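pls design
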């Protein structure tokens, strides 16, 4: 593969009040990064931010990075850049596994933003699968008729996924972990104990 791909991602720290950054500035900064990559001959791919694991109830996830997701998609559209919807994929996965199991991916047992080592493996696999063309949609089995259903109503995958060549050789496959993620099954291994 002769093409240089550059993945660009802003997220939780850019949302904080201390960053003193408006959503328009957030979008402009992403657009500038994408244009710089294009000027350098690379192909930029924007990633929407990973969801925080901030639940208000065991099944109600706070969508506190939804604006950053939207403005990342705007930045991609304004620069004719592809994007991968990590936010949608991570939201759907977290809703599927629920609060208690989602917290096992926390860096510290009260840190719902940063990932521990196993959380990095799980969401790193999610990014790899998105890069390889998986739609950001999690299907869960409802237990009644053998059919999978979406965790939530999701948009069509509007990300332009161009032919980047054969990227599979750049990633170590993990079929079990990929299946767990995209079927909404808790991929166990985090350090924080399950809440009782």
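designed seq:
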């Amino acid at each position: 593969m002769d093409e240089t791909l550059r993945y660009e991602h802003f997220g939780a720290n850019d949302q904080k009040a201390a960053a003193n950054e408006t959503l328009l500035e957030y979008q402009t900064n992403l657009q500038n990064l994408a244009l710089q990559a294009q000027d350098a001959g690379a192909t930029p791919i924007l990633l929407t931010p990973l969801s925080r694991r901030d639940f208000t109830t065991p099944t109600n996830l706070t969508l506190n990075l939804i604006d950053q997701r939207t403005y990342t998609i705007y930045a991609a559209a304004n620069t004719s850049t592809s994007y991968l919807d990590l936010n949608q994929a991570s939201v759907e996965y977290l809703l599927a596994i629920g609060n208690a199991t989602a917290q096992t991916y926390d860096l510290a047992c009260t840190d719902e933003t940063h990932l521990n080592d196993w959380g990095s493996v799980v969401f790193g696999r999610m990014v790899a699968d998105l890069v390889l063309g998986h739609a950001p949609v999690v299907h869960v089995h409802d237990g009644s008729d053998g059919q999978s259903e979406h965790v939530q109503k999701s948009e069509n995958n509007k990300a332009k996924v161009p032919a980047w060549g054969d990227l599979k050789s750049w990633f170590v496959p993990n079929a079990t972990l990929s299946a767990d993620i995209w079927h909404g099954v808790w991929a166990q291994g985090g350090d924080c104990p399950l809440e009782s």
